[in-house]
Amino acid sequence: MIIKIERKITNRLYTEGKIIVNGKPIANTEENTCTMLPGGIYHIQLRYAAEHERYIAILAEPLKGMLHVPNTLSKIYASGSYLNARKHNVICIGEPLIPGALTKGGKILSRLIDRIEKAEARHEAVSLIISDDDVRSVAPARHWFESSKHELV
What we know:
Elements: E1 2-10, E2 14-21, E3 24-32, E4 40-48, E5 54-62, E6 74-78, E7 80-81, H1 82-88, E8 90-98, E9 101-103, H2 105-121, E10 127-131, E11 136-137, H3 143-147
Parallel strand pairs: 1-10, 1-11, 6-8
Antiparallel strand pairs: 1-2, 2-3, 3-8, 4-5, 4-10, 5-6, 7-9, 8-9
């Protein structure tokens, strides 16, 4: 199973993109520009939190041929904004709400987790490809400066 994140728009606060599963776009993405993983190919797995909540872990050890990524664990997370992405070291998925924020990601994340579970049950490798090929720089949306000045240090 191939999951791809195509980054499209970036600025100093957040990076927006699309998440594509086996060639079909399923949602938008938001990442904190300062903490996002570099473009490349990663292994991913389902993991379970102590409260039995399923989540998608992005293993920070890159596949061969890539530069070493610091040993951190990133996750794919439902909805949120670049602030969630920065605080929790996650890639947020969902439908666009405003520039830099997503909504309605819970159902999308649940369906993606179900698809990964089925792939793992078939002993199929699940990879994440992060692409920076078509990314363009834009200015951050003004509302982030007005509503959270203390967060922008």
